Amino acid sequence: QRSNTRNTSKDWKTIEGVNILDRQLRSELPCPGKTNLDWYLFHKVMSDYKDRPMLEVGVGRGGSALTMAHNTSKLDVIDSWHQTWDKDSVMDMLPANFIDAKSSEAEISQEYKFIHLDANKSYQDTLNDLIKYSEYCTGVICVDDYLQSMWPEVTRAVDTFVSTTNWKRILIGNHQVFLSCSRTPAVREIA
Length: 191
Hints:
Layout: E1 2-6, E2 14-15, E3 18-19, H1 20-25, H2 36-46, E4 54-57, H3 63-71, E5 75-79, H4 87-93, E6 96-100, E7 112-117, H5 123-134, E8 137-144, H6 152-164, E9 168-172, E10 176-180, H7 185-190
Parallel strand pairs: 4-5, 4-7, 5-6, 7-8
Antiparallel strand pairs: 1-6, 2-3, 8-10, 9-10
Helix pairs in contact: 5-6
């Protein structure tokens, strides 16, 4: 497992002087692979934890992580980079601490207020990620691909996790679910 950082000297809320979210909306930077509703909910719930430590597990092209970087300068991202994503291009644009490892092998030691899980699609691997990373979360876990027909095992794993722990579904989007042990201010405002 290797950890490295790039772009840390830049303003975390802007890249080349322009707001990250504005550049995503203009298609100048990768957008999260989310519906408009999911992107809104993702940003809104995450805003409760502005400038607090956040973690993304499964980075892909970096769209969701960029939205996270808009909210915090304390962003760690975990990916094994064994898919078709080009890690160097993501590192060039994303101000984050990169941890090169599979989600099951990554080592972290700090607590995070917001964690986005988007790495595994199998039942057991998703459940293992939820169990592992919930130990480091003191706020909200957002699980991507919940209720996504292409990956029904993600939904099954989340449902098992919720039924066997004190974590609860606090908000469900089109293809993502937010889990917490308590309702957050943003969720109270939305719901």
